């Protein structure tokens, strides 16, 4: 059944953005609105998740303006969309709470809150839309807000990073328009379900299939740029370092995943056509995607090992980690029909690959946003994230240290943290492909293993430099002793402490930040021990992503279409 | 049984979680709280043993992945669990004395308990991935324990090294486990329907897929890194940066024992007879089966080679050691090599060796480490050259050290002798059965054992002779530190005196766990007649005794050889440093910060992807013909646009470039007019005008000079431009060639209008507007419009942000 709950996440985020604009006169009201908006977003996503996954799984369309598909814009919530929205809601809530104490008062009142929620609106729209051109629009919403948030501090390096980020994304937007226009001209439709239907049965709609592979490849380049996969990763390190920590958390945790989501949605649901009728797409795209993923894993890992600041290290790590997310997609495309026993049924390797990518993406969203936020807390307390100016923080801020360690270990894939299960599924996808005789799967596996070793190398390097070792001069000045929570700052201030142990307000801000970090760390442990929930949701999502038939028939279900075909409204 | 097993495994974790609270109440006496927790575990393990528990118990964990928290109880599991919890009690008690006044005690005891719990989990796990979970937790807790003195550079180095090596090895093993569960269709290790129960069929599946040897190597890699086998032994000597009780625990009962445990656990699987007779196709398969039966099993040549190599190399390194803990660390690796070689051998003596030596090594090595802890604590040094004659100051300790080092040396009638003798026996039979190069096995075993003899006697000699004058006052150890090694020393003595009681009690069951097929009962005796392996023992001890007077020369000789690439550490250090240095030099070259580079890569990537796809799809170029209604005016306008585009590339200045570019834009606008699209034309004109004005305003503030690019860069850019232009041109050409049944046409048909007519009425009816563009924008695709409106709002916000934040930054 069609349901307005589908559109709710977009509306909540947009409404919050507008409300935080009109409450600019009062900083506290604005902050409260923003955090409440984050909570409301989480709540509606929970309702949607329950509707689509827990009491289903079903595919729920929503026909915007009551125009029937394929004429108007259709939003579609299925298990895949719900999974991605859930990921966005968790990270978004953490980031909005963290940001309300991290970004300075002036910046918050100026534009931070509206931009943040516009970004969430763009992300939600991208996850929910069932229309190719509408996807472009939500990309633009998401990107426009992230442009501003990247250059938010407006310093020299921020402007430079933002310029690179903007220009590369504008190029990608242009390419995307060409591809969308081409696909409309070729298939005669913009509605994704309709396009899938037409590609599966081209003769019935007078569709010439030949150009679609090239057009799909153009889209792949665009999505790869959004996801930051080599060789489209160039904007990532500078932009992640320039943006305020809570924004980087969302950029790395969620916005990057929009690219991954788009690859899954377009290639597995739409271009794969009914029952892999159009296998040529997979045969061409799969190996290329695996190659790009492998290059990302190696380059991101090698790049991260030698960085001299936590932010830079984490940014390069993101390039590597997204490689791990994309790799199983490529491998799954290379042998899509291989059957594997997974989640209590015989499924295809394509579905396993998608599930692996999703679980890994979920872990990366939690772990990387935690790590970027922790890096933000370091910045807020010590004033730097340079490795040589930190040290000895495990004894001074044990909770930040413990959270950081859990985040890092989850990136490595240490059980029973949720990251382990991501690694497990990625490795399993490659192992099944190798055992099934897929050429190159062994190489993919070897690259993934090498990348995992690199992950251990850079996580332990950062840990040793930041949390162990002799505290640097800076650390000794700012945090002369262990930080003991709200109210303890007064003594430190009289001892000559500056920003770290300063006023009660700073202490309260720090308390909120540390609480956020601990909450995310607990999520990493909780979703690891209770990983069945995540794997089950990912399995449903993977099924939804590969079940083109189910997607198409839900969108064109005469019972839900407004007035039926041709009835108008 | 399930409740007991769950209690054994999770009690230490609960205990660890409560430790910070307990520490607040008890302070340093937390050691005894932790020891009590370990004692309860020990009692529970004893209960499992006493009730004769055997088999699988499980609770669901991740049913979607077929992973359950399954436990399997048998002799091998119980022995390791006994060692972990029993030695755990002693270590934690000992810590109460050793850690007096040390920093970070709450963390220390919590981690030590978690360490013990993880090891109990490894021992008892009956599911591949549950095993892996506890396996990685042992690596993790030893990371924290090795790095206990967090501000020490060397602790950090050691902790990172152990983490890098053991966790990496674990990940390789994980892939091996995935291959196993793929082939066996189960994640259960032992019990009904498990990998071990269906070993034959599973091994055959692996062989057919060509994955048998890779799987063996991957699983072996996990065991080798954990059990510090050459060349991964390098982390173990550094791990002595941990407080000594941790070293004793890590070397005797936990962590490194996990690797040999795994080898013992999977021994029956990988040695399972490969039976292709029933399923083979023709003679070739039968021949292959016959060849497989007579050839040395892969398991044996991999593990015996690895084990003997490790045993020998690390024994030599132990002789070269200058620090008592370093000596013991290398010795641990050496004895683990012995166990691996034993389990590797494809005969019953091999399994007996491994089973018995796990117990013997734990008993004497834990004793020796605790003795070393007493020495360093009471004498204040661990330097071998400055220690001697310690029996005068530490008489009880000297007796314990004597007992344990003679056992380590493999001298009869001590327990170490019996398992060493079994190794010789199994190696000898390998030579006899397979002939040829396998005769090297017994030879190397004897060669390596000579060095074992030498360093064992060296450790003993610390207590003999005259007291060194350099030695200051040596205190008597407190009871808490003396009692645990005394208990272990008594264990060594008891096992030495009545080895067959130990075998009947538990070692026999351990042997049964690691044996292929039916296990027979076994017993050991002091030799009464001359056999080849008795001769081997005699040679070992004889040659060792002959060489002993030359110990210092051998020691110096080994140290002088250990330079550069001969050392595995050289490879590790250069690898890690080279990686960091490589990263520092590669990244600035790739991430140049130049937009030109970035855009070039992105565009080249896009063009390559699309052109490759057109090539792969084998598209033919559609016939190009002039469309109907092409007038001279249209051709002229587009021609001027082309000239404008070409002129941009040779424009001498920014301003000229922008002006020529706008020629192109305005020509397109005119084209729209000619093509009956006034809305588009108006939009285009507005945009072009605005862009031109803004550009000129901005350019006013920039230098007017372009500069001339390098020839090579210009050529590259030219090629790239042509490729990108070609891609877009081809895309448009191909995409517009088809004439699908589009939704726009369908919408018109639905309204019942003949195609090509004026369509206003339908949009008026449905959309409430007479202008088709308006209806599309505000009704049909209203959501797009809403999105774009927010983009415009954000653009305004961005201007605001840039100006306000920047002026604020400048004001600072």
**Which oligomerization state do the chains in this entry correspond to?**
heterodimer
- The coarse silhouette of chain A is globular
- Strand elements of chain A, count: 4
DSSP helix fraction of chain B: over 70%
Average pLDDT confidence of chain B is: 88
Structure write-up:
The complex is a heterodimer of chains A (569) and B (812). Chain A has helices spanning 8-22, 27-54, 79-102, 105-128, 132-150, 156-187, 192-200, 202-205, 212-227, 236-242, 245-271, 279-305, 310-334, 349-381, 393-396, 398-412, 418-435, 441-466, 473-478, 489-494, 504-529, 531-546, 548-555, and strands at 60-63, 74-77, 339-342, 345-348. With 569 residues, chain A is an all-alpha fold. Mean pLDDT of chain A is 90; it is low at 488-501 and 564-569. Among the domains of chain B are: 1-160, no CATH class; 592-621 and 708-738, no CATH class; 625-703, no CATH class. Chain B has helices spanning 2-26, 30-50, 75-98, 105-124, 128-146, 153-184, 199-208, 212-226, 235-238, 244-252, 256-270, 282-294, 298-319, 324-344, 348-379, 395-409, 415-434, 440-461, 479-497, 499-514, 532-547, 551-561, 568-590, 595-617, 632-649, 654-674, 678-699, 711-735, 743-750, 760-767, 772-780, 782-811; strands at 55-62, 67-73. Chain B has a two-stranded antiparallel sheet. The longest helix of chain B has 32 residues, at 153-184. Residues 275-281 of chain B have low confidence and may be disordered. At the A-B interface, helix 4, helix 5, helix 6, helix 9 and helix 12 of A face helix 5, helix 6, helix 23, helix 24 and helix 28 of B. Chain A: GO terms for molecular function: lyase activity; NADH dehydrogenase (ubiquinone) activity. Chain A: It comes from Candidatus Halobonum tyrrellensis G22. Chain A: It is found in: Cell membrane.
């Amino acid at each position: 059944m069609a349901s307005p709950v589908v559109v709710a996440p977009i509306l909540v985020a947009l409404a919050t953005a507008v409300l935080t604009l009109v409450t600019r006169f009062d900083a506290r009201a604005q902050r409260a609105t923003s955090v409440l908006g984050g909570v409301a977003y989480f709540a509606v996503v929970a309702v949607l998740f329950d509707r689509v996954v827990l009491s289903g799984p079903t595919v729920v369309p929503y026909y915007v303006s009551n125009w029937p598909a394929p004429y108007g814009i259709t939003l579609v919530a299925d298990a895949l969309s719900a999974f991605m929205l859930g990921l966005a809601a968790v990270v978004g809530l953490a980031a909005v709470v963290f940001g309300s104490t991290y970004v300075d008062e002036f910046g918050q009142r100026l534009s931070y809150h509206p931009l943040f929620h516009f970004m969430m609106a763009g992300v939600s729209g991208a996850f929910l839309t069932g229309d190719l051109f509408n996807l472009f629009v939500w990309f633009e919403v998401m990107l426009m807000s992230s442009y501003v948030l990247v250059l938010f501090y407006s310093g020299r390096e921020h402007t430079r990073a933002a310029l690179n980020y903007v220009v590369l994304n504008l190029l990608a937007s242009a390419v995307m328009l060409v591809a969308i226009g081409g696909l409309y001209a070729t298939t005669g439709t913009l509605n994704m379900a309709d396009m899938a239907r037409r590609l599966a049965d081209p003769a019935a709609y007078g569709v010439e299939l030949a150009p679609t592979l090239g057009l799909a490849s153009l889209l792949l380049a665009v999505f790869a740029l959004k996801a930051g996969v080599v060789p489209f990763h160039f904007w990532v390190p500078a932009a992640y370092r320039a943006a305020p920590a809570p924004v980087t958390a969302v950029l790395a945790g969620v916005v990057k995943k929009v690219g991954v989501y788009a690859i899954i949605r377009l290639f597995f649901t739409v271009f794969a056509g009914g029952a892999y009728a159009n296998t040529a797409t997979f045969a061409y795209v799969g190996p290329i995607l695996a190659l790009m993923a492998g290059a990302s894993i190696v380059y991101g890992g090698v790049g991260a090992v030698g960085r001299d600041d936590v932010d830079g290290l984490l940014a390069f790590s993101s390039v590597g980690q997204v490689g791990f997310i994309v790799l199983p997609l490529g491998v799954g495309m290379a042998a899509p029909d291989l059957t594997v026993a997974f989640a209590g049924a015989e499924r295809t390797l394509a579905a396993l690959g998608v599930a692996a990518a999703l679980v890994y993406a979920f872990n990366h969203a939690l772990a990387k946003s935690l790590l970027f936020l922790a890096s933000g807390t370091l910045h807020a307390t010590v004033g730097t994230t340079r490795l040589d100016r930190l040290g000895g923080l495990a004894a001074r801020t044990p909770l930040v240290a413990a959270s950081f360690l859990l985040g890092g270990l989850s990136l490595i894939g240490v059980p029973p943290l949720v990251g382990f299960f991501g690694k497990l599924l990625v490795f399993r996808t490659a192992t099944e492909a190798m055992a099934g005789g897929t050429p190159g799967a062994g190489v993919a596996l070897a690259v993934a293993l090498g990348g995992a070793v690199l992950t251990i190398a850079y996580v332990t390097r950062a840990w040793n430099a930041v949390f162990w070792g002799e505290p640097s001069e800076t650390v000794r000045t700012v945090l002369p002793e262990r930080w003991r929570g709200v109210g303890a700052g007064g003594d430190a201030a009289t001892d000559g402490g500056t920003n770290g142990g300063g006023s009660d307000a700073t202490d309260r801000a720090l308390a909120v930040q540390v609480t956020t970090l601990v909450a995310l760390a607990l999520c990493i442990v909780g979703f690891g021990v209770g990983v069945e929930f995540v794997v089950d949701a990912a399995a449903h999502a993977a099924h939804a992503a590969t079940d083109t038939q189910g997607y198409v028939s839900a969108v064109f279900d005469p019972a839900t279409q407004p007035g039926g075909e041709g009835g108008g409204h | 049984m399930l409740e007991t097993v769950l209690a054994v495994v999770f009690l230490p974790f609960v205990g660890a979680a409560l430790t910070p609270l307990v520490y607040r109440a008890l302070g340093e006496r937390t050691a005894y709280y932790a020891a009590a927790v370990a004692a309860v575990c020990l009692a529970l393990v004893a209960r499992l043993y006493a009730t004769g528990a055997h088999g699988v118990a499980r609770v669901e964990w991740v049913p979607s992945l077929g992973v359950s928290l399954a436990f399997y109880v048998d002799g091998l599991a119980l022995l390791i669990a006994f060692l972990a919890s029993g030695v755990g009690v002693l270590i934690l008690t000992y810590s109460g004395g050793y850690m007096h006044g040390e920093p970070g005690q709450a963390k220390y005891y919590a981690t030590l308990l978690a360490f013990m719990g993880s090891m109990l989990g490894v021992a008892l796990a009956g599911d591949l991935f549950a095993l892996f979970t506890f396996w990685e937790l042992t690596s993790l807790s030893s990371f924290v324990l090795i790095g206990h003195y967090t501000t020490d550079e060397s602790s950090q180095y050691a902790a990172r090294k152990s983490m890098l090596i053991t966790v990496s090895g674990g990940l390789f093993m994980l892939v091996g486990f995935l291959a196993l569960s793929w082939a066996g269709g189960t994640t259960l290790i032992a019990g009904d329907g498990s990998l071990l129960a269906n070993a034959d069929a599973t091994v055959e599946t692996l062989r057919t897929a060509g994955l048998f040897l890779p799987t063996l190597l991957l699983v072996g890699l996990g065991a080798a890194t954990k059990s510090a086998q050459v060349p991964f032994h390098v982390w173990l000597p550094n791990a002595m940066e941990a407080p000594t009780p941790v070293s004793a625990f890590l070397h005797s009962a936990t962590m490194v024992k996990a690797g040999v445990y795994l080898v013992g656990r999977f021994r029956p699987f990988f040695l399972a007879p490969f039976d292709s007779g029933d399923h083979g196709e023709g003679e070739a398969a039968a021949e292959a089966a016959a060849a497989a039966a007579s050839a040395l099993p892969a398991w044996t040549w991999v593990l015996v080679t690895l084990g003997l190599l490790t045993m020998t190399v690390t024994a030599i390194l132990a002789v070269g050691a200058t620090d008592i803990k370093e000596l013991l660390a290398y010795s641990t690796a050496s004895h683990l090599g012995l166990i691996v070689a034993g389990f590797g051998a494809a005969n019953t003596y091999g399994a007996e060796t491994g089973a018995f030596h796990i117990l013997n090594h734990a008993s004497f090595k834990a004793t020796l480490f605790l003795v070393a802890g007493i020495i360093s604590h009471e004498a204040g040094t661990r330097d071998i050259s400055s220690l001697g004659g310690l029996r005068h100051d530490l008489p009880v300790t000297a007796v314990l050290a004597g007992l344990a080092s003679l056992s380590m040396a493999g001298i009869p009638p001590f327990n170490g002798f019996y398992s060493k003798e079994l190794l010789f026996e199994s190696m000898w039979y390998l030579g006899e059965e397979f002939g040829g190069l396998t005769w090297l096995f017994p030879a190397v075993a004897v060669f390596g054992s000579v060095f074992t003899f030498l360093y064992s006697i060296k450790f003993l000699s610390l207590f003999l002779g005259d007291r060194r004058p350099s030695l200051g006052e040596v205190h008597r150890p407190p009871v808490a530190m003396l009692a645990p090694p005394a208990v272990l020393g008594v264990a060594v003595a008891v096992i030495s005196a009545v080895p067959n009681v130990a075998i009947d009690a538990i070692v026999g069951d351990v042997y049964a766990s690691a044996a292929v097929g039916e296990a027979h009962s076994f017993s050991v005796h002091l030799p009464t007649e001359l056999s080849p392996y008795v001769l081997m023992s005699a040679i070992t001890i004889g040659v060792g005794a002959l060489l002993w007077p030359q110990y210092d020369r051998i020691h110096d000789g080994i140290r002088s050889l250990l330079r550069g690439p001969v050392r595995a550490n050289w490879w590790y250090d250069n690898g890690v440093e080279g990686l960091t240095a490589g990263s520092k030099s590669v990244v600035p070259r790739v991430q140049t910060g130049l937009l030109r580079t970035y855009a070039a890569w992105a565009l080249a990537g896009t063009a390559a992807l699309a052109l490759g796809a057109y090539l792969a799809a084998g598209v033919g170029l559609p016939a190009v013909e002039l469309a109907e209604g092409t007038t001279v005016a249209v051709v002229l306008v587009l021609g001027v646009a082309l000239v404008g585009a070409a002129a941009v590339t040779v424009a001498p200045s920014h301003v000229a470039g922008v002006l020529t570019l706008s020629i192109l834009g305005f020509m397109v606008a005119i084209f729209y007019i000619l093509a009956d699209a006034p809305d588009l034309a108006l939009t285009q004109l507005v945009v072009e005008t605005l862009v031109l004005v803004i550009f000129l305003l901005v350019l006013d503030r920039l230098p007017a000079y372009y500069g001339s690019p390098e020839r090579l860069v210009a050529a590259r850019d030219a090629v790239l431009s042509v490729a990108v232009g070609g891609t877009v041109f081809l895309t448009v050409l191909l995409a517009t060639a088809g004439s699908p049944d589009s939704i726009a046409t369908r919408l018109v048909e639905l309204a019942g209008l003949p195609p090509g007519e004026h369509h206003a009425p339908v949009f008026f009816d449905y959309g409430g507007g007479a202008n088709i563009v308006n209806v599309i924008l505000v009704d049909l695709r209203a959501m797009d419009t809403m999105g774009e409106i927010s983009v415009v709002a954000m653009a305004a916000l961005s201007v605001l942000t840039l100006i306000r934040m920047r002026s604020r930054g400048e004001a600072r």
